[in-house]
Specification:
Layout lengths: L30 H9 L1 H23 L1 H16 L5 H12 L5 H26 L3 E2 L2 E2 L1 H8 L7 H27 L5 H31 L4 H28 L3 H28 L2 H4 L5 H5 L4 H13 L2 H10 L7 H13 L2 H23 L5 H14 L6 H4 L5 H5 L13
Antiparallel strand pairs: 1-2
Helix pairs in contact: 1-2, 2-3, 2-5, 3-7, 4-5, 4-9, 4-17, 5-7, 5-8, 5-9, 6-7, 8-9, 9-10, 9-13, 10-16, 10-17, 13-14, 13-16, 14-15, 16-17
């Protein structure tokens, strides 16, 4: 997919922050502009992302053309090509539900979140040795092939992985620069800076716990939940919501309730994603069934199955888990065996119930934070239901008829790209 050129939009250009040599003009908040974004948040985020990344790639070219064309542009293309822009949308509707219209700042912070996601995905694919991302060669694979090397060879693998680490680092640098160059009041900058620093550290901590769990042979139920919370729930849902609240100047009570709602929704999403990873239809989920098992991922589902098998003294189930977990050569028969363990131990049913409980709690806490009957609150409610996986009877889990994201998209309002409910 070709890289789109920066496009004009109705939100003006960024204004110049203090101490910056380049001009980043940014208009003040405008309720009229905010209503334009309300109608199509994704388009507004993409327009701003194109503008920001166009500047970044041009700046990279001032240092070296090869670096700009082969690495910087690849980071920009990856950020623009694919993804649901869920984090910027959560930030946007979190801000709007709190009654604010900080249009330009919200969109720029949304770009920064997209770049953080780019960093996380590129590095994650290197660590997991994933070959595909969004239906295309993963960045480390593409870099090796572009250099005329086989990504399967030692030399090609080493080059691609090393270059991809640099690509992920560059995305993180661009994310930080974008936040630093966003015009904010002193109070906003203090609150957003604190949240931003915490989010970056949580993301790295979660990734490390995930890696550690793979080499240590698994995690406890508590540790598995902790890993999911840090690696996914926090930076994917909770922090974007609280960034929106901080931008709006929301009070402590509102911020705490939004934080709890986001944390519960993010965990519910991760639990359902774990279920889809083993029970979903690869034709609609976009990834092979059993990859988490092959990689020995310390998922909550696996931790529950192991814990409950131990409590029941089920040596046969434990033997299956020991044999297949972390087995890169997992066969279809092996996968069937481990799915049977998830069923017999009750782990699957428990995780489904826990995801539903978290979903309900997320909705409840959101109602304590904002008015879900007002425009912004209503949109945020639909988005949070999407994230937490209210999948109309879990058809994606039980039958594989549709993937979770597609089913959940039906819960979005017209302004969010779905059908009116």
């Amino acid at each position: 997919m070709g890289r789109s050129q920066p496009t004009e939009h109705s939100f003006g250009e960024p204004s110049q922050p203090a101490g910056k040599s380049k001009e980043h003009r940014q208009p003040g908040p405008s309720s009229e502009d905010a209503q334009v974004v309300d109608a199509d948040v994704v388009h507004a985020v993409l327009s701003t992302t194109r503008a920001v990344l166009s500047e970044r790639v041009a700046e990279a070219g001032e240092h070296d053309v090869l670096f700009s064309e082969e690495l910087a542009r690849r980071v920009a293309d990856f950020t623009l090509d694919g993804g649901k822009r869920m984090r910027p949308r959560l930030l946007w509707w979190g801000m709007r539900a709190c009654g604010a219209a900080e249009t330009a700042a919200a969109l720029r912070l949304g770009v920064a979140l997209e770049l953080i996601q780019t960093c996380a995905l590129i590095h994650d694919d290197v660590m997991d040795r994933s070959r595909l991302r969004r239906g295309q060669p993963a960045v480390h694979v593409g870099l090796a092939e572009h250099a005329g090397l086989s990504p399967h060879s030692d030399r090609g693998s080493a080059f691609g992985s090393s270059a991809a680490v640099l690509a992920g680092d560059l995305a993180l640098v661009w994310a930080d620069d974008t936040v630093a160059e966003t015009v904010l009041s002193a109070a906003q900058r203090r609150r957003i800076g604190t949240l931003w620093r915490a989010m970056r550290t949580e993301m790295v901590a979660g990734q490390y716990l995930d890696l550690h769990g793979q080499v240590s042979g698994g995690s406890s139920v508590v540790q598995a939940l902790r890993t999911a919370s840090l690696k996914s729930a926090s930076y994917s849902v909770e922090r974007p919501l609280t960034l929106g609240a901080a931008l709006a100047g929301a009070d402590e009570r509102t911020t705490e309730a939004l934080s709890a709602a986001g944390r519960c929704a993010g965990l519910a999403f991760q639990l359902r994603d774990d279920l889809l990873g083993v029970f979903g239809n690869p034709g609609v989920t976009g990834k092979p069934s059993g990859d988490d098992i092959r990689e020995g991922k310390p998922t909550y589902l696996l931790a529950v199955a192991r814990t409950w098998a131990e409590a029941a003294g089920d040596e046969e189930a434990l033997a299956v888990l020991s044999r297949v977990t972390g087995n890169a050569d997992l066969t279809e028969d092996d996968l069937a065996d481990v799915l049977g363990v998830f069923e017999v131990t009750g782990a699957r049913a428990h995780v489904e119930r826990e995801a539903e409980r978290l979903h309900d709690h997320a909705v409840h806490r959101l109602g304590q934070a904002v008015d879900v009957e007002a425009h912004g609150g209503r949109q945020l409610l639909g988005l949070l239901r999407t994230v937490s996986g209210d999948w109309s009877g879990h058809s994606a889990l039980h039958t594989g008829e549709t993937d979770g994201a597609a089913a959940a998209a039906r819960l979005l309002t017209a302004a969010e790209g779905g059908s009116p409910r």
